[in-house]
Amino acid sequence: MTELNLLMVGAGLSGAVIGRMMAEAGHKVTILDERDHVAGNCHTERDAETGVLVHIYGPHIFHTDDAEVWEYVNRFETFLPYNHRVKTTSQGQVFSLPINLHTINQYYGKTMRPDEARAHIAEIADTSIETPQTFEEQALRFVGPDLYEAFLKGYTMKQWGVSPTDLPASILKRLPVRFNYDDHYFFHQFKGMPQDGYTAMVERILDHPGIDLRLGQRFSREMAERFDHVFYSGPLDGYFDYALGRLGYRTLDFEKFTEIGDYQGCAVMNYGDPDVPYTRITEHKHFAPWEDHEGTVCYREYSRACGADDIPYYPIRLMGEMEMLGRYVEHANQEGGVTFVGRLGTYRYLDMDVTIREALDTGRAFLKHAADGTQMPAFSKPPL
Ligand SMILES: Cc1cc2nc3c(=O)[nH]c(=O)nc-3n(C[C@H](O)[C@H](O)[C@H](O)COP(=O)(O)OP(=O)(O)OC[C@H]3O[C@@H](n4cnc5c(N)ncnc54)[C@H](O)[C@@H]3O)c2cc1C
């Protein structure tokens, strides 16, 4: 095997997992990240004042049905049991999410059994909408106007900055209601929280003699010439210096505050009312129930349009963005020597387990191309 000189742009999960696979295959790997830490948006850090492990870029819960991915993360970190549950404060009361039988009974002040609740919702749902096109139509069709107003409308407007009448129906699941008391947020077979945090896990993934990690360094396209191949997990439009315009993202602002004791009794409390400017409050100590801290760290989370100097969080992927994305994909396909990976490189929302799955598949595809002497394509998972 010829030793290749490879560059990973980004030390998030995408860059780390591909980089590790390449180093284990005997290649020379350089990993660059413009930030001063690894783990990308999953980065966790201990708060100096309270000792609480904080999810710096917003709450991250690991959940998957992918046995290989679960085995992979457990190779580098101990995952402890954690069941995610979310509450919402709406119209002066606290309710259980996702909308379930408890939410419905509390909202209507009733004690309905599953079939009664199903019949009640069927009665108030707008069944004249046969094929919902927008988020609002989807909600009215499946939950009716009351639950839509209380739990979905205000939150969605704050999160996306547009009216639910302008969002596609696909954003809301087909049946966004549970007619039982199951309030687990995720149904996956494997779920948990990394005992020492995601950053410790990524540091261990990167701990290999074949990996040269350089933090605080920004990638520029001239660097690519010095390498046999580049795996790029930065923003796709950023790679081309935004020549065709900026792909739309939402960004988040976190207002941090500390308290003594337990501030809200749960990890995540949503705020659905439109007159509350933030979407949710995250109390980080609840992500590590095995730890004991006197103080507590909370983030009030605000969502807004992403400007040029902001961190891109959620890709918007409405019609205009998709057209621009198509043009960037054409450019990328002509580039050669670069593979675009991860949530920013492919302009998609990806959960961590999907990111790892795609990174493993991309790494394997590259090694096969290298062995066959064929060209690795620009995308192993096309963004469109
Ligand atoms: C608010 C929020 C909550 C989330 N919650 C969950 C959750 O609960 N569960 C879950 O499974 N997933 C969650 N995710 C998804 C998770 O964050 C992603 O799956 C994961 O971060 C993707 O990893 P990545 O390596 O592709 O990208 P990133 O983590 O974004 O890493 C990319 C890295 O590239 C670096 N970079 C970019 N451009 C350059 C450049 N030009 N030069 C050098 N470095 C560069 C960046 O600094 C960054 O470190 C959440 C995402 C968000 C936004």
TrEMBL record:
Pfam family, one: NAD_binding_8
Keyword Isomerase included in the entry's annotation: yes
GO molecular function, one term: flavin adenine dinucleotide binding
SUPFAM superfamilies documented for this protein: FAD-linked reductases, C-terminal domain (SSF54373), Nucleotide-binding domain (SSF51971)
Cofactor(s) it depends on: FAD
InterPro entries registered for this protein in UniProt: UDP-GALP_mutase, UDP-GalPyranose_mutase_C
Chain segments annotated as transmembrane: none
Record's GO cellular component terms: cytosol
Origin superkingdom: Bacteria
Keyword set, alphabetical order: FAD, Flavoprotein, Isomerase
Alphabetized Gene3D superfamilies for the sequence: NAD(P)-binding Rossmann-like Domain
All copies of domain UDP-galactopyranose mutase C-terminal, residue ranges: 150-349
Annotated PANTHER family: UDP-GALACTOPYRANOSE MUTASE
Family from the record: Belongs to the UDP-galactopyranose/dTDP-fucopyranose mutase family.
Protein's recorded name: UDP-galactopyranose mutase
Upper taxonomic lineage: Bacteria, Pseudomonadati, Pseudomonadota, Alphaproteobacteria, Rhodobacterales
